[in-house]
What does this fold into?
Amino acid sequence: MSSREDLLFWRIAHYFTVTKGYSLMHMSENQKELWIEDTSNKHAQIIRLLRHDLDWGNRLQRDIQHAAVQAENIRKHLMKRQMNALNIYVSEHTPVDEFESFIKHPLQVNKKTILHSYIIDQENGENSLADVMRNFNETAPSLFDINESIDEQQIGVLQSEILSNAVTKSKQEKQFFENGKPFFTYVFLAVQVIMFILLEITGGSTNQENLIRFGAKFNPLIFSGEWWRFITPIFLHIGFLHILMNSLALFYLGPTVESIFGRIRFLWIYLFSGFAGVLASFLFSSHLSAGASGAIFGCFGALLYIGAVNPKLFFRTMGKNVIIVIIINLVFGFSVSGIDNFGHIGGLIGGFLATAVVHFPKKQKWFTQIGALLLTAIVTVSLLIFGFQNEKPDVVNSIAQQKLNEQKYKEAYDMLDQFIAKGKGDAVTYFQLSFAEIQLQKLTEAKEHLQKAIELDPKFHEAYYNLALLYMSEGNITEARKHVQKAMELSKDDKYKELLNKMNQGTNL
It folds into this structure.
């Protein structure tokens, strides 16, 4: 037969779960103990309800300590920095001996979990419930009626509504993770495997020239106008271990993200994250790079967006594992050479922003999405402008050298001349410009730029040698000899000695 306390226990449970929106975490087999949570409620993220007729104070003390340990374990699982928890006993009477000291002050565990305990009994039920509701800055609901008759059916209705509410929430959460079967995940997997095979059979996936030919991120060619290299590196991988690790990551992570967000959203998130990863690498690293890591980190960024929008669901399901994996990968990236961590971080941020733009299927938040779209566009355009306006000399020099090797002297001259006109350029820039000018018979300018190269780098022996050749062609043997001797002091190159011998013998070039 049910008692008044049984009815009160289920009314309190009903109030917090159905009215206040707490989620049922655990129910004991005898249905006398409930753990419910609402991580968004800063007043009490966790509530433990126990229907038990208390007898002795020392038993109450042990139970409070046990509940505090359980609450601390939940805090760790939810990865909360601090957590407030309520421990509510519904009892016919209070313990027969001293117990007030055990509930007067909250019990703290590791100074991170704070457990407040309350006893709701026949005599002080309303007052005790009022004490509980002060944690929420609210007035206690009217759950007591001393003259009310106890009806088993009332308890059954309350239990049914609580369980029905829990089932409904569970179905909603399940639907959140099921928005279509993965498709593009396997398309991307197939594409990157096919591209890896093509790389291997056409020169090797670790061959830099071959990687560049297929579209790897190579800053000089991006500066020269090959914009597609912001996308093509996503599908290329350097070496077997690289393709293996990224394929495994995509195989396990991709279906989850695609199932949550749907195919079209996943397509956008993956490609934009990959682009963002390449863009970050372009801005902060001059090394050749390729790989789907940025796009894969973008998938992690999409999951972090779930944590930002729905922390309850995120930390109850995948949150802890996602954050741990991200931290491990970033630490590994910074501690091991040859890994482009800029691309990882760029992809992670890009994935978060891309997800904010599209939000969740059938759950539009237009204000947030429009704001995210504007922010993403502004950040992307700003970074592109910054990147292209901060062209580094080594990048320009690399492009110029390629044009000089191809005997495209006019193109090299125009590019280098425009670059130094901006007040940029190093010794190599001026040396290459002088070489192009020699080929174009601009000898006076060539001499000036060789002198500038020597001014910027006094140990630039090739510049001394070329300057000696120019002076010799003018018949100024004295200046020619002085410069070739300086070149010989800086380098043991045989051609310098040969040139000096010709000067001493009076031989024409």
